[in-house]
Amino acid sequence: MANQYPGPPPEQPPGKPGQNPYSTPAPVYGYPQAVPQPYGQQTQPAFAAPLLTLGDIAVNGDTIVSPAGSMPLRGAVWTATDMSRTEERIPPHAIVLAVVFFLLCFVGLLFLLMKERVTTGFVQVSVNSGGRHHATMIPVQSRDQVVYVLNQVGYAQSISV
């Protein structure tokens, strides 16, 4: 009958006399385990959260990461171009309400005074540093988003000095 219990194969001698070869801890799978560091030594994290992200451009510490490659943050030239447009129009539901209430009384024509502002387009953000250049287009749907992107570019200019 074969050996029912796991153990070292008969042709391999155990490591040290008196030591169980299976007493060493098995590798742990899943999340990486913390590696104890000697006292006084600290390690840098492998990845830090970016300070700023504009489209596909990210600023990590003193580096700008883009599809064109990594660029130094110091001395970077940032440019933002607002290529969006805002239209003011009468919404379709106001036209429907004006027609319905026009039949009842002339007050329904006041619904034609309703206006809505619709912003469409992009803000183009470009960065030039270390002999590399990259531009990205960020879609916007409101004036607040345009102002937000322009403020982010202003922040990027202030930290790249």
Architecture blueprint of SSEs:
Layout: E1 52-54, E2 57-60, E3 63-66, E4 69-72, E5 77-89, H1 92-104, E6 116-129, E7 132-139, H2 143-159
Antiparallel strand pairs: 1-2, 2-3, 3-4, 5-6, 6-7
**What is the alpha-carbon Rg in Å?**
32 Å
Unreliable stretches, pLDDT < 50, 5 or more residues? none
User: What's the pLDDT, averaged over the residues?
Assistant: 80
Strand order, biggest sheet?
1-2-3-4
SSE pattern: EEEEEHEEH
How does the helix and strand content classify structurally?
Answer: alpha+beta
Q: Kindly report how far apart the N and C termini lie.
A: 78 Å
Query: Biggest β-sheet, characterized?
Result: 4 strands, antiparallel
Task: Please characterize this protein's 3D structure.
By secondary structure, this protein is of the alpha+beta class. Helix content is 19%, strand content 31%. It is built from two helices and seven strands, in the order βββββαββα. The strands form two sheets. Strands 1-2-3-4 form a four-stranded antiparallel beta sheet, covered by helices on one side. A three-stranded antiparallel beta sheet has the order 5-6-7, with helices on one face. Strand 3 and strand 4 form a beta hairpin. It is elongated.
